[in-house]
Structures are given as C-alpha cells and as structure tokens.
Specification:
The structure holds two protein chains of two kinds. Chain A is an alpha+beta fold. Chain A folds into three domains: 8-84, no CATH class; 122-228, Butyryl-CoA Dehydrogenase, subunit A, domain 2; 242-377, Up-down Bundle (Butyryl-CoA Dehydrogenase, subunit A, domain 3). Helices cover 46% and strands 14% of the residues of chain A. Chain A contains twelve helices and eight strands. Chain A has helices at residues 8-23, 26-35, 41-49, 68-80, 86-101, 104-116, 229-241, 249-262, 275-303, 311-331, 349-360, 367-377; strands at residues 121-124, 140-144, 147-154, 165-171, 182-188, 194-200, 206-218, 222-223. In chain A, β2 and β3 form a beta hairpin. Chain A starts with 7 loop residues before the first helix and ends in an 11-residue tail after the last helix. By secondary structure, chain B is an alpha+beta fold. In chain B, β2 and β3 form a beta hairpin. In chain B, α4 (67-79) runs parallel beside α7 (182-220) and α7 (182-220) packs parallel to α9 (266-291). The chains are: A alpha+beta, B alpha+beta. At the A-B interface, α9, α10 and α12 of A face α7, β8, α8, α9 and α11 of B.
Chain lengths: 388, 350
C-alpha cells in the first residue's frame, strides 16, 4: 500500500498554482461573492484553453488527458483559491452523459464548446414539489413533428441565467410514473418561452427557478430514446454521487489552524495554547484526513474501473457541516464578521463556510438518499422508499 | 498512490480470517470469558502460525513483514473478538527485536513465553495490566530504561466488563534492564504507537462484524409486518457506521504505511487512527445492539460481546478525548506549560 502522492501530481499542482495566481484575481473573487453565480467566463475560457474543463478527456477531444487524481488536484487548487468551479463541474456531469449516450451529430455540435470553456450546461432535474425524488417529474414534453413542446418548471437551476443549455428532464408519457416515460433534452437557454427568476440563498449563491412555457425544442436535441431518459440521467446521477466536490473540511481545517496560529485572547495569550482549541483542531484534523482518504479512494477505484460508492459524498459534506459550526463556536464573534468588513477574521471564511456548508448535504444527492443507497447496495437492506 | 493489498497481504488476511472464523466462534469467546479471558488453544495455534513474528525481521526468526501485515491479523482477530492478547504482544515482539533481545524474542516466537507491554503510566505494580493474567513478562519504560518485568509468584486477576485477562502485579517482581538512553525512550514510544495502530485495526474488524450482525438482523427481523431494515431510522445509522469504518480502515492503513516509511507524520496518524477507530467502533456496536431490541441486551446475543469490547479495547489503553491532546501535541506542537514530554505523548523522533 502506498499513500504517497504520485510524483506527477507535483507538476499539475505547480501548474494549477501558477494558473490561479494569473487567473483567480481579486476582482474575480469579489465578483463571485457579489453575484454568487458560480461562473466566471474568463476563468472558464482560460481553463478550457488548457483542456481543464473536460480535464479527463483525451487531448484530441479538447481535454487534457488527466487522470482522476490530477483532475482532483487541479480543481482543488482552483477551488481553494476561491475560483468558482460550479459551472464547469456541473456542465461536465451532463457533458459526460452526452458523450456516452448522445448521437454523433449532437456530440460534435456541443462537446467541443464544452471542452473549450465556451459552452455551459445547467441541470434541470428538480421541480418545486420534487426535491430528492428526482423522478417525481411533471414537466411535460409533447412531440410535434420534428420538434417537441415543453411545459413545466424547474427549481434550483443554478447558473441558468448564464448557461447555454439546460440538461432537462421531462415526462413524455403522461400515464407514466417514476423513472419510466421520461425523456432528456439539451434545451438552448435562449429559446422563446423560457423565463428565469433569481432565487437568492443564504450561502452567497444565486440559484434560479425556471419556467418553460410552450418552449419548442428541435428533436435533434433529444438525448437517448423518447421515454428512455432514465438511462441517460442515471449515469449523470451516479457520477454526482461518486464525487465530493462540496466538502471543504480540509479547507476549514487549514483556515482554523491559520486563525489559531495568529489570534490571541483578550489577555494576549495565543489561541493555539487554549486546551479547547487544541482538542477541537485535533478532532477536526482527523475528520479532514478521513475526508481526504475517502476522496482518494474514489480516484483510486475509478482508475481501476470500479464503482467507488457514495462514501465520500456522504462523509465529506456531513463533516463539513459539523465543523463549520464547531469552528465558528471556537473562533467566536470575530468569526461572524463577513468579508465586506475590515474586522473580518481570515477573510470572513468562517461565516462563509457556516452559510454554505448546509447546502452540501442536500444537493448532489441528500445525505438521506446516499445512506439509503449504502443500506440497499452494500448492506443488503430492503428499499425504504415506495416503489413507483 | 496504491490502496490495494499485495497478493501476499491478501493471503495473510485470508489465512487469519479463516483461522479465527474456525477457531474463535462466539461459543469459544464465551467459554474463554468465563475462564478468565484467554483461550490457550487458540493462542498456541496463533504462535504456531507465526503471527507474532510476522512483523519481526527474518534474521531474528520472524516473517519479515511489517505493521500492515500485523494490522491485517489484528483486524481479523477483532472481527471474531478472538480471546487472545494480540496488539500488545505483537508490539512487544517488535520492541524486543528493536532492542536486540534475541533470546527473549526467541521464546516469544516459539510460544514458550508471553511477553506483553505495560502501557499505562507509573510503575508496573500500580498499573492494571491488560494482559496481566496471562503474560510471563511485561515490558515497561522506567525513566529512560526499557525493562522486562517478570511475573511475580502471585498476581491478582481483575474481573472486568471486557472479558480481558487483566491483572495487577502488586508484589515487586524481578526486573531486567533491556535497553537504556534516549533511544530506548523513543523505541518504547514507538511501541505504544504500534499499539495504537493495532488496537485501531482490531476495532475496525470488530466494527465490521458488528455492522454485519446488525444488518443481518435488520434483514430478517420483522416489525409491523416488514423487515426492520426497511425503516430508515434503523438502516441509516448502519450506513453511517459502514462509511466511518471504511474511513477508519484507510486511516489505520495510512498510519501503518507512514510508520513503515518513517515519515514525520506517522505518530500523529497513529493517534488519529486510535481515536477515530475507537469512536467508530463504539457507535457501530451501540446502534447494532440497539436495533436488536431487548434481545441485544441478553447474554445469548453475540452483539453484546462486541459492544463491551468496543469500549474495553479503548479504555484499557486511553481516553480518546485525552488522546486528542496527543494528536494536538504532534500536529500543533507542545502544549504550553508541558515541562516534560511523557513517553505516552512522545512523538517518534522527537
């Protein structure tokens, strides 16, 4: 067994660190904090120019031919610097599904733009009454000659207002329930009949509700067979459950450590000497280590072509939520001061993490959904949700 | 980065998995507990297979393996809560090899004497010795000397909730100095870290089986007309326990690797693994026992064997909360006002 970082990761880390210095500028960070879009077009194009959007695709398809570890390292560096990666990360979920299941004509039309960092694809799964039950989809698609007419609404479509396409889940067979009778489309976001309303979140993120009213989509933007959308979306959902992009437990540890090393109490005693701070940091260091190890295992098993399971996607965000609370308790009122105020501790990172973390156990498969998957697939327990 | 076991390591794991499955069924565990917490027959088998020497260099009569191989054996022993004193004796064998005490090591490997460790602080006669009822010798650190304390004529067995062969050696016994100086101090500290790692591994095996016992029961036991595993309040904590166990296992393996590679972080990782495995195993057994309802509370039910040991294997070494101070000492630097570093917190190479 060998837990050392593969030597070649040093190169990609150095490259990503240099990239960050050049492209993740103070202006870009401030724009992201103000808009909460999770998108920076200039950053995206710069990533695309290096093949880092579709980093694991071969170079001839616009990728960089990176392995899962290199990809995670590169994205980790950009994310740790505060660079928004929601756009490319989300886009790749549907781009990978399209690459695996789309027609050649559609792949040739869409994928080069994705890899170049020109094309963004948002996800249209969740509906106002759907939530974790992705397949409780009511948005209708009706065939009309060479086109389809789409009516319905989707909730939590992050960066819909900046996206070029939406990877949209619709119901074609009105008599069907659950995962049957569904059809997936790539809907151009400038289509007439689409209305986007901003939904502000407490985590500085903007998301959207999107209304589709008689939106006409050409049949060549359909993915997979009509009524067989399950096969297309399933791969994208699994890909989402196997990653832990939203866990920042290690980042939180680094920030808390930096605070403890620099801050002092009212009498000038270093916080690093406080017994309560020491035990908390020690316990946080353990969870950060375990989060990282479970993440590494995802990369390792992916390389072997095995299914890693949702362990990292469950443990990482759960530990992130728990520690965002503990660390705020530890830092005290100074940790509550946000990034706009000069009195802020560590750039407002503690209040930022406290605000953001709670969403990480919800999107990409809520913790409850992931626990049910583990219980059913790894422990052989009966399915708890009603069969549809 | 390679998280796979080698073919040889797989073989070690499989061999000991079947040895403990065959020779340490729960009936034997109960019998051994009634007889003082030790199964001499199983112990003989274990020494015959060379388990104690797996981590000892070949030129000293061992198997030439490392800590990872030992941790695989500890994990399989833990899976069956096997009534044999493994973590301390395996670490003691490696300490003897480090100190170059060949004759005593030979006795250990041949199975003629049981040598364990006194892991508590203070003189041996004031410690509750984990393996005290069965050990012929315990190794202890006194000042900067590693000493072998020989079993006195009379030892007082201590009846305990973990079914462990605990005892006090109250009367002063013969003491033999094995090694001296700062290096000895560091070697003993390293042995304690190996105990941390091997106990973590044993707890991981224990947790795995506790989860499986709970899942098996939840699959077949019905309440309100359906298997109780259908209820998320029953199933979800089992899923969390499985994830925590996998994390604990990775952390333990990483600690083995870092120790073998002599990395500066090794001692931090050893203490981290102990704390995390301790927590994970307790949580797993507590929930697994709970979902058995009243049956889990009865002595007929195997899960109670696991529940008691999940705590006992931790408590006999250290309070996990105080172990966080050890993690802090090793990752953040010494605590203020710590005039001297006791052996229990001393980092390897410090």
């Amino acid at each position: 067994m060998d837990f050392s970082e593969p030597a070649h990761l040093k190169d990609i880390r150095a490259e990503a660190e240099a990239f960050v210095v050049q492209h993740v500028t103070a202006d870009l960070l401030e724009e992201e904090l103000r808009t909460g879009d999770g998108i920076s077009r200039p950053l995206l194009r710069a990533m695309g120019a290096r093949g880092w959007v579709a980093a694991m695709w071969p170079k001839e398809e616009g990728g960089a031919g990176l392995d899962p570890f290199e990809t995670a390292t590169m994205l980790g560096v950009i994310r740790a610097a505060g660079g928004p990666t929601i756009g490319p990360g989300t886009t790749m979920l549907s781009a990978n599904a399209l690459r695996a299941m789309g027609s050649q004509q559609l792949r040739e039309r869409i994928l080069p733009g994705v890899a170049a960092g020109e094309t963004l694809i948002c996800l249209g799964y969740t509906e106002p009454e759907g939530g974790s039950d992705v397949f409780a989809c009511k948005t209708r698609s009706v065939r009309d000659g060479d086109e389809w007419i789409i009516n319905g609404q989707k909730m939590f479509t992050t960066f819909a207002h900046r996206a070029d396409y939406c990877f949209l889940l619709t119901r074609t067979d009105p008599e069907s329930h659950g995962p049957r009778g569904l059809t997936m489309f790539l809907v151009p976001m400038d289509s007439p009949g689409i209305e986007i309303q901003a939904v502000r979140t407490m985590g500085y993120e903007r998301t959207n509700i999107v209304f589709y009213s008689d939106v006409r989509v050409s049949d060549d933007l359909r993915l997979g067979e009509a009524g067989q959308g399950l096969h297309v979306i399933r791969a994208a959902l699994e890909a989402e459950q196997n990653v832990a992009p939203s866990s920042r437990t290690s980042q939180l540890y680094e920030a808390a450590l930096a605070w403890a090393r620099s801050a002092a109490d009212g009498n000038g005693a270093p916080m690093l000497d406080d017994p309560s701070v020491r035990r908390r940091l020690a316990r946080l260091a353990i969870d950060a280590e375990v989060t990282e190890l479970l993440g590494y295992r995802v990369g390792f098993l992916e390389q072997l072509g095995a299914k890693p399971g949702p362990h990292a996607a469950l443990f990482g965000p759960e530990s992130y939520v728990r520690w965002s609370k503990e660390v705020l308790d530890m830092v005290g009122p100074a940790g509550m001061v946000d990034w706009t105020d000069p009195e802020t501790a560590q750039g407002g990172t503690f209040e930022y993490h406290f605000r953001c973390s709670v969403a990480s156990t919800i999107y990409g498969g809520s913790s409850e959904v992931l626990r049910s998957l583990i219980a059913e697939q790894l422990l052989g327990l009966p399915r708890s949700r009603p069969k549809s | 980065m390679n998280l796979a076991l080698t073919e040889e390591q797989h073989f070690v794991r499989e061999s000991f998995a079947s040895l403990f499955a065959n020779e340490a069924p729960s009936a034997r565990v109960r019998e051994a507990e009634a007889e003082g917490g030790h199964d001499p027959g199983l112990w003989n088998l274990l020494t015959e297979t060379g388990a104690l020497g797996v981590g000892v260099p070949e030129d000293l009569g061992g198997g030439g393996g490392g800590l990872l191989e030992l941790s695989l054996i500890a994990e399989e022993a833990g899976r069956r809560v096997a009534p044999v004193p493994f973590p301390e004796t395996a670490a003691a064998a490696r300490l003897l090899a480090e100190c170059g005490v060949g004759d005593l090591l030979h006795d250990v490997l041949s199975g003629s004497r049981i040598v364990s460790l006194a892991t508590g602080s203070g003189p041996v006669e004031r410690q509750l010795l984990t393996d005290g009822a069965v050990a012929d010798i315990v190794l202890s650190l006194q000042g900067d000397q590693v000493v072998a304390v020989h079993r006195p004529a009379v030892v007082r067995r201590v009846s305990n909730m973990g079914g462990l062969p605990m005892a006090r050696w109250e009367t002063p016994a013969e003491i033999e100095i094995l090694a001296k100086g700062d290096r000895s101090r560091r070697r003993f500290a390293a042995a304690l870290d190996e105990v941390r790692i091997l106990r973590a591994a044993a707890l991981n095996g224990l947790a795995s089986e506790a989860i499986e016992i709970g899942a098996a029961y939840a699959r077949q036991r019905e309440a309100f007309g359906i298997p109780i595993g259908t209820y998320q309040a029953v199933a979800h904590p089992l899923a969390d326990a499985l994830v925590a166990k996998d994390g604990a296992q990775l952390l333990t393996w990483k600690a083995c690797w870092a120790t073998t590679e002599r990395l500066p972080r090794a001692s931090s990782l050893a203490a981290m693994a102990f704390v995390f495995s301790a927590e994970s195993a307790y949580t797993a057994t507590q929930h697994s026992l709970h979902i058995h309802g009243g049956y889990g509370f009865t002595v007929e039910c195997d899960i109670q064997l696991y529940y008691r040991r999940a705590k006992a294997w931790v408590t006999t070494f250290a309070d996990p909360d105080r172990e966080l101070d050890v993690v802090a000492e090793r990752t953040l630097g010494p605590a203020p006002g710590s005039r001297r570093t006791p052996a229990r917190t001393l980092a390897e190479g410090a």
